[in-house]
Design a protein that fits this description.
Chains A, B: InterPro entries: Acyl-CoA_dh-like_C_dom, Acyl-CoA_DH_CS, Acyl-CoA_Oxase/DH_mid-dom, Acyl-CoA_Oxase/DH_mid-dom_sf, AcylCo_DH-like_C, AcylCo_DH/oxidase_C, AcylCoA_DH/ox_N, AcylCoA_DH/ox_N_sf. Two copies of one chain form a homodimer. Chain A is of the alpha+beta class. Chain A contains 19 helices and twelve strands. The mean pLDDT of chain A is 96.
Chain lengths: 596, 596
């Protein structure tokens, strides 16, 4: 059973991602070390003791009958306890009952919820996205009606983007919104893949829906964002009539079986006096995509956290099995009978690979959250330069946090199945569930291919390429420190990190040049290998950053050993990735002919 | 829907794996080109038109009631048609009604069955294993009773190895066999993970069961192999009493839902006058493991073929979707509206990666089958040197064919889900099923970690290391030919192949030295990266071998382009794998402390 790795999480937050320095510099208000520890410990307890034991119940699915979805046994009560613990309101604005805590704490706790059950935790991930969009773009009236209950989690939120023909490309969506004349709109259309579009956790569900106004220009410049509640809300805040929207079906999916993925129909006349679901505009007309991006950026980071979370959960599960299961005699085994399979070098490689990737991706995701917090803090104190710097840092790390983490989530979950041998293929073991659950994360909130395009075409060119170069320079500093340390336990770590950074630099320069030359197709051909090169290198350097922290105990030795394992066993891939970026495009384009 | 790639399969068989040369040299009896084509075409038709349409039915599972398993709708009839087509008897000895065809044809057709449905095809994979064990080790009486019906497929076979505490390590199994005195034995025990242990395809099921005799020595030297039929067989060949064995339960698995994975109980007294399932010894007492290895070697190759098959099926499915689905505008897209996603460079990379890996692993597996056929042929004509050479070649390639192919099967299936975006996560699409099905292949018939141990500790040292060196020398010859060709379409292929071969040589020498020095733990630490290094390099060289064949048509251009893509985009990983072998052990061993 999952035990929240509170110590690892706290260490990475404070000493790798920069929470400690940010607290010390006063950038995070009156947040204290003690409060951080108290929050992490209590979240760890709740995740391990209350969420994890109900995770496997999620496999019972979410049956739909007459538009009503029943969530898995115990989950509605769990959700109630979870919001009563204040976990939904962590980052919400204090003006509406939120705790106003930094994003770093939100992602740290989010990792624990998602390790214990990705399917359960998804509900709040969507609600938090809705909170952000409403906080940032809705008018005061909407905020007054909806924000407090969304922040507390008493009501939940959804994101309605995708339609059958509009996935990655939202420009072609067809859902329409007709102005009623009183400031409200009537929404008509069908949305698919709506996570927690219908459920029994809460009394009301607040749908954020992208739709087109009658005279909207075509493409992405003609999309507006609407708030469409399941139940209309009376002036006194009580629930009124059922709005004209319904869950038409629930998908039969590979994983996250406890999370209802709904097809939602708006305005088919099932409820209300006249057809059309009543909705209210969020932000300006035709600026819906910009509003959506507010919530999508953080949602991308939160999906990245799911990758970290599933890697951690898979690692723990495999480790436990490898310590218990005996089979064969490992080389050098002195004990009685068969050795635990953890003594076999190949199993050690599996477990160390999982642990390295989990820790590296955690450090990336937490660093991204740190950048968001630093940007917010700089904006708050009116420091425009710092705000620009940190916003660019967050922008740069978001696709890495999303794509690298979710890719390694799948990898780690797959290795986890393998460590279990035949038992891994049996559903009751639970390792297979982690693999099934993990597989959605590289897809939703922008496929990892889309993230790579975003990284290369929008994030690298920030500040004319200077931001990414500065970032790589920071990583170089850490690597140099490993060299100066001259500790033999690091083995070849410094050299290996240097080589990887050189690969990253070469590939970055090549891409910036290709963009400048207008060789877009060539740049995009290498986008995915570049994204992995970036994630692997920065993740390994972050492991080194942690390994440099001197605590003088066994944990320090373990961090150094893991960092060295990662550098000497996993990082070598960077030269291949560099070549794929700088030399691979031509053959890729030529080989189009080899496809049907 | 899957269409058997008969042309690709025939080409690889004849021009890469060596079927053409073997026919021309008269090593394969009176087998002709025309017969090969006729068999492949008809198998292709059957796989595409009859098996594939019923594949998704397998998701309905195999319910068990009172010891009786019901297979998915239509499958029992499909099985009947399949054996009526003679597909089960392809390689069986003509003495008992088999067609005596070479293993190359068996694996080529097996690929097609497994692409269309892995779960359906598993039944015959096990039967063929039983046929081999009975052919090679059973006495004439048993052959007379069982062999013809196993070869035709009228009866099916199983392999009963695993027990709850004995998986990879069979030395600790507990099932026991008590001599009755008349040449038969009574078997008592429980076996798990028995594929098609019970079903409704056939009138009788012939279980091959590993068990211990009363005075057997401990460990693997005390295991004997028994033939235990579900129904006893009367002297006239008709079915007699039900034997005392029963399917106790069917596993709830991640994939291959149409294939019943059974827990079998022998001798609990449910059937017959006295407890104990009646069985007959195959081969000598306490030599059961040797008999089992006869069937396991070929079974490993056949599982490797499942990896190839699922990669091909996933590729085809993703290709079809990528051609149909439109989204966004790819760079350079001149058409109306959105472009098909296949025009996006990142999707091309996905598809080319899948296709490269499928073709490379097919070439490895077929080459392994070729070696088996050549060894059999050499033995048949009493050429001991050739027999030794080809047996060593088959031995060397078997773990690669098993492990590399099944690993890339999972990779390709996972990429296939990704290409489908959100639809890939929906079960009805079928891409997720391929991923779920693929995940068992790296586990069963010896986990891929076990294959790596086998490769390093038993296959590399063959003929004092000379065999593997000779093999690498052959690959070098092919690479040199690419260089001599001087065709600019090959791009940097020759150089990249040379680098990979140098990596393979370095790692091979390092491992041979480590074995010689008795540094077993260090050698095993690098076994899995070495296995992938071997598979990737040899697979890429085989692509080059095919690309060197001049047909003068578009297929030739496609083969060259794919070979180049593989060399320039995928092969770069070899330097990292070499380093993991030659430099990674120390850090791996040190990092044991970082695990719990």
């Amino acid at each position: 059973m999952y035990r929240a790795p509170v110590e690892d999480i706290a260490f990475t937050l404070k000493h790798v991602a920069g929470l400690q320095a940010a607290i010390d510099a006063g950038h995070l208000g009156d947040l204290t070390d003690d409060l951080v520890d108290a929050i992490l410990n209590e979240a760890g307890r709740f995740a391990s003791e209350e969420v994890a034991p109900l995770a496997q119940e999620g496999e019972k699915g979410t049956p739909l009958k007459d538009g009503v979805v029943t969530t898995p046994p115990g989950w509605a009560g769990l959700y109630r306890n979870w919001i009563d613990g204040g976990w939904n309101s962590l980052t919400g604005t204090p003006d509406y009952g939120g705790q106003g805590l930094p994003t770093m704490l939100s992602v740290a706790t989010s990792e624990m919820w998602n390790s214990s059950s990705m399917a359960f935790s998804l509900c709040s991930l969507l609600t938090m996205g809705a909170v952000e969009a409403v906080e940032a773009h809705a008018d005061e009236t909407l905020k007054q009606i909806y924000l407090e209950k969304l922040i507390s989690g008493e009501w939940t939120g959804t994101m309605n983007l995708t339609e059958p023909h509009a996935g990655s490309d939202l420009g072609v969506l067809k859902t329409r919104a007709e102005p009623v004349g009183d400031g409200s709109y009537r929404i008509f259309g069908q949305k698919i893949f709506i996570t927690y579009g219908e459920h029994d956790f809460a009394d009301n569900i607040i749908h954020l829906v992208l739709a087109r106004l009658p005279d909207a220009p075509p493409g992405t410049r003609g999309i507006s964002l609407f708030l469409v509640p399941k139940f209309l809300v009376n002036a006194d805040g009580s629930l009124g009539a059922r709005n004209d929207l319904i869950c038409h079906s629930v998908e039969h999916k590979l994983g996250i079986h406890g999370s209802p993925t709904c097809t939602m129909i708006y305005g088919d006349g099932k409820f209300g006096d006249e057809p059309g679901a009543l909705g209210w505009l969020i932000g300006e007309e035709n600026r819906g995509l910009a509003c959506m991006f507010t919530m999508m950026n953080n949602a991308r980071l939160n999906v990245g956290i799911q990758g970290v979370a599933v890697a951690e959960a898979a690692y723990q599960k495999a480790l436990e099995y490898a310590n218990e299961r005996t089979q064969g005699k490992a080389p050098g085994w002195q004990g009685e009978g068969m050795s635990p399979i953890i003594e076999h070098p190949d199993i050690q490689r599996d477990l160390l690979t999982m642990k390295s990737l989990a820790q590296a991706s955690r450090a990336i995701a937490f660093s991204c959250a740190h950048a968001i917090d630093m940007a917010d803090s700089a904006e708050g104190r009116g420091d425009a330069d710092a705000a620009k710097f940190w916003r660019e840092r967050a922008n740069l790390l978001t696709p890495i946090a999303k794509a690298f983490s979710t890719d390694i989530g799948v990898d780690a979950a797959s290795i986890g199945v393998q460590v279990h041998g035949g038992m891994g293929f049996i559903e009751e073991t639970g390792a297979a569930r982690l693999l099934r659950d993990s597989r959605i994360a590289p897809i939703y909130e922008g496929t990892n291919g889309i993230q790579a395009i975003d990284l290369v075409t929008r994030k690298l060119p920030q500040s004319g390429g200077e931001h990414v170069k500065g970032y790589i320079g920071e990583l170089r500093e850490i690597t140099a420190e490993v060299g100066r340390k001259n500790n033999p336990d690091f083995g070849m770590t410094a050299d290996k990190l240097d080589e990887a950074l050189a690969d990253l630099e070469t590939a970055t320069d090549w891409l910036l040049q290709a963009l400048q030359d207008g060789r877009i197709q060539e740049a995009l051909a290498g986008a995915t290998p570049y994204q992995r090169l970036f994630g692997l290198t920065s993740g390994a350097v972050y492991l080194a950053k942690g390994a440099l922290v001197e605590t003088g105990d066994a944990l320090e030795n373990g961090r150094i050993a893991l960092c060295r394992f990662c550098a000497e066993n996993l990082l070598g891939e960077t030269s291949a990735l560099r070549n794929a970026v700088t030399q691979g495009a031509q053959s890729l384009i030529q080989a189009r002919s080899a496809l049907g």
